Amino acid sequence: MTSLLFLFVDLIRLRRGPQDLPASQNLLIITGFLLIVAAMLGDHMNKDFTGKLIFALTQVVILTAIVWIVLALNKKSERTVQTLTAFYGTSVLIQLVVWPFRSWLQSMSEEAQQRATIPLFAVVVLAIWSFVVMVYIYRNALDCSRGKAILMSILTQLIIGMVMLTLFASELQMEMVK
After folding, report:
1. What is the pLDDT of residues 111-142, one digit of tens each?
2. What does pTM read for this prediction?
3. Considering only CA atoms, which of 29, 14, 41 is closest in space to residue 134?
């Protein structure tokens, strides 16, 4: 188990690729479950368990569908399990690192948040690094250029954002009004 954790850490550090993960359905399910839990922990918008669960499940399902489609269109379907496991596992670890900084920001008044450079900087840096990791995983999974991997990562983020905004617009608007 520790070796798997170090493997995901190495993925985040761009030292290993998704191809280095075992092609295990069980590991895919475990990391998918952990991603849902991590997303629920990081969800400051929904207050109830059901809302957090639906929001997290929706994000994971959309990510899964996009990655599956991207790999299928690029004739790399056999890499789906390892690629999704890489996305899930690295996302869990990054979200766990981001979580205390986001919680710190959420606990502050709006005025204090504007001066909270340390937690805000940490969240921004980790968001950028998360994108870099996504590009790295796509580049390895697709055996493609950095440019194509960047494009796939941008499209993935845009599609997830647009679908989530469409499905949860009223909840997001209420959060913005607060």
Report:
1. 777 777 888 888 899 999 999 999 999 999 99
2. 0.90
3. 14
